[in-house]
């Protein structure tokens, strides 16, 4: 099958599911998603209500949440496309039916739904973490609704029992041990008196946890509105995020997405700069836990004016009769409404403004006065906002025009001299052949002169007529 090129923005995220796998799952809370069209509640085969997430809507309205959902739920995420009756595990389907997955992705993009589903009913501990903070160990997690008791075994062997909350979450706290070795806790889940699940968890030192409070963030600057929107996902128990960009600062509260994970969104107004990075600081009860600098994506940026290219072209022609030199040419980049001005330095060294037409075409005459002719002084200068951006030396063009004019005049004088000589010669020839006095009897025939007395009987000249009268 021919490979289909996918152009959806979320493709890279979806493809990442096949690589990431093995991450501790986090059960998403449908109420945390802002767009109603992104989720729907259906009844599963066991008659229980489950939440499904629309791939397109999440990609469009909440890409950060979709990113996190796909990554953390790799082992428990199912794909449902009702139109073709597809209902299977996403990661497995992608790996085993790559071409078919690409076709479905492109053809049914708007109708793809995702569902978090736990195939193994013995997996009652949905998520759990253990971390140190302020010399205390916090063990937090979420379990299924069947779990009635949680037992946490501390690194020193002591046990702590707790009952899950109505939201099926739990938290256990105890003093941390001042040791350099790795510490672990064991979390056991019970349904009544029966052990249904157990998991060994590493205790994350506070230094490592603080360095990794920010899970994901995104900063987009609308240059036209002057608004910077920053969204992100952080770990709880962070309660506030501060965003700073080029001196503008704003705070945002952290809202719980699901257990151990929160989101924030903040908008900075009257932002003028389009360079630099935004700084994100994460706080809990006024204490800074983490910070990060992120690149800012700029949208609706005004088109940068193309760098103007300026040029001056021109030719010169000498007008001896009017004792002037005419300059004609074009200014590339001319715009009379943007502070662009053209000046010429005349033959006498003075400067005057030239005003081209809307197309940048100019034409001017430079008067030649005796004793003041200096072709090397003539040049054109183009200024933009009183700054010289281009100049053109017209010396060579003027010299060429003068040379051509002189050559033309010399050729004309030579032609006139030849014509005078020819006219004089023709006049002499004519005077030589024409007799003095009465020219009667002297006729021109076929371009030749016929002198009286040389009769030609074959013609019909008047001399033949005279002889007939004599006879």
From TrEMBL:
It comes from Brevibacillus choshinensis. Residues 455-471 have a biased composition (Acidic residues). It comes from the Bacteria. Residues 405-471 are annotated as: Disordered. This is Bacterial Ig domain-containing protein.
């Amino acid at each position: 099958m021919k490979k289909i090129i996918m152009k959806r923005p979320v493709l890279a995220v979806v493809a990442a599911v096949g690589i990431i796998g093995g991450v501790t799952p986090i059960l998403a809370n449908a109420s945390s998603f802002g767009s109603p069209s992104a989720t729907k509640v259906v009844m599963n085969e066991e008659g229980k209500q489950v939440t499904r997430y629309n791939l397109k809507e999440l990609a469009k309205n909440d890409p950060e949440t979709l990113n996190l959902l796909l990554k953390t739920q790799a082992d428990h995420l199912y794909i449902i496309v009702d139109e073709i009756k597809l209902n299977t595990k996403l990661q497995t389907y992608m790996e085993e039916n790559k071409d078919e997955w690409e076709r479905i992705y492109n053809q049914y993009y708007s109708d793809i739904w995702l569902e978090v589903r736990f195939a193994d009913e013995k997996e009652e501990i949905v998520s759990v973490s253990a971390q140190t903070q302020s010399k205390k160990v916090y063990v937090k997690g979420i379990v299924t609704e069947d779990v009635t008791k949680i037992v946490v075994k501390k690194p020193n062997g002591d046990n702590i029992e707790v009952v899950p909350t109505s939201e099926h979450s739990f938290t256990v706290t105890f003093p941390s041990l001042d040791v350099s070795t790795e510490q672990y806790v064991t979390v056991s889940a019970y349904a009544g008196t029966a052990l249904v699940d157990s998991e060994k968890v590493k205790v994350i030192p506070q230094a490592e946890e603080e360095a990794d409070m920010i899970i994901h963030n995104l900063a987009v600057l609308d240059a036209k509105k002057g608004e910077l929107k920053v969204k992100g996902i952080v770990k709880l128990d962070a309660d506030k995020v501060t965003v700073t960009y080029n001196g503008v600062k704003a705070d945002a509260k952290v809202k719980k997405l699901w257990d151990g994970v929160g989101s924030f969104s903040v908008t900075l107004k009257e932002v003028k700069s389009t360079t630099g990075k935004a700084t994100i600081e994460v706080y809990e009860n006024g204490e800074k836990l983490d910070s990060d600098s992120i690149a800012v994506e700029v949208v609706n940026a005004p088109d940068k004016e193309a760098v103007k290219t300026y040029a001056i072209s021109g030719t010169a022609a000498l007008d001896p009769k009017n004792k002037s030199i005419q300059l004609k040419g074009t200014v590339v980049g001319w715009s009379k409404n943007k502070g662009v001005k053209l000046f010429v330095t005349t033959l006498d060294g003075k400067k005057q403004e030239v005003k081209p037409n809307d197309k940048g075409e100019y034409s001017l005459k430079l008067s030649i006065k005796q004793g003041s002719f200096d072709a090397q002084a003539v040049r054109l200068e183009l200024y933009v906002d009183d700054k010289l951006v281009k100049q053109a030396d017209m010396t060579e063009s003027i010299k060429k025009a003068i040379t051509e004019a002189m050559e033309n005049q010399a050729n004309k004088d030579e032609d006139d001299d030849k014509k005078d000589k020819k006219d004089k010669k023709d006049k002499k020839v004519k005077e030589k052949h024409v007799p003095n006095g009465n020219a009667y009897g002297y006729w021109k025939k076929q371009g030749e002169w016929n002198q009286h007395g040389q009769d030609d009987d074959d013609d019909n000249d008047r001399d033949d007529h005279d002889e007939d009268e004599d006879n």
